[in-house]
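Subject: Sanity check before I submit

Could someone independently write out the structure tokens for this chain? I want to compare against mine line by line before I put it in a report. The sequence has 332 residues.
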Amino acid sequence: MNMKQRRRRRQVIMILAPVSVIISALLGIMIGAVPIALPDIWHALTSPVQSPTDTIVFDLRLPRVLIGLLTGACLAVSGAILQGVMRNPLADPGVIGVSSGAGLAAVITMVILPQFSYLLPAAAFAGAFISSIIIYFLSWDRGASPVKIVLAGIALNALLGAVMNGIMVMYSDRIQSVLPWLSGGLNGRSWHHLSFMLPYALVGLIVSILAIKPANLLLLGDNSAKLLGQKVELQRLLLILLSSLLAGTAVSVAGLIGFVGLVVPHAVRLLIGDDYRYLLPVSMLGGAALVTLADTAARTVFDPVELPVGILLACLGAPFFLYLLKNRSNWR
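---
Independent answer below. Compare away.
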């Protein structure tokens, strides 16, 4: 593909990405046990009169859709950053243990220390960051080895999962509210949950735009980045910190939703290349659309049973992960 074709493709995708977010959000509000037409949505948002339709739109579906958009955006950007920093196409917050670290911290907060539940996003961020640092240093061998990252992530996932199971066995009388969260889902999410995650998500997503330049420079390799005056290890640490904040924010409200940070950035990279000026915003929008559409499908396709969106995304993402694992000729 020549530069002109790639530029044209980028322009088309940069237009389609926000359109897909708008369509996914509208479908998430319109589709359900009670179908709602576009004029009714507009009326509910502009002139609510507390009719049943207005209540469904404003109190049930709208906050759920907004949380889905933020969750998908956070997970996709987190994955895009991790894949660049660790130079591994399989670096996803769920696959390599970052989400498990956030999940363990969240479980400890919800089960053992429920009086500190208002600190849940901060606790999830701390757990994600500690996991990221552990994986990064375990995989370091004159560079972050992709194979070692995957192996360290698998081991850490197993360890953190065992600790979470142990906590739930010891506090079995308190885990009923945690079990749906572990599957990853948006059922029952409300304006309270949105206000809970919104400050953290906005900070992380806004700062991620500022991370575009250092992420692009790290793609050149450590030596080239150092020759350009970059403090490589400091920048890498800050990017891991940012990725952990985004993953922890998503996990704190939506639970353990996996594979979004793997599938979306990798698909976007295949379409428009590695340039983070395009990769990051398109991944952000693509992740938001994917989670919202998947949540809409999970709560409607299997009606009257509502499937947690994390289960549906795992069914979609696991084959993609295996495909990447099989085609690993470009790993170093």
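---
OP: Matches mine. For the report I'm noting this point. The mean pLDDT is 85.
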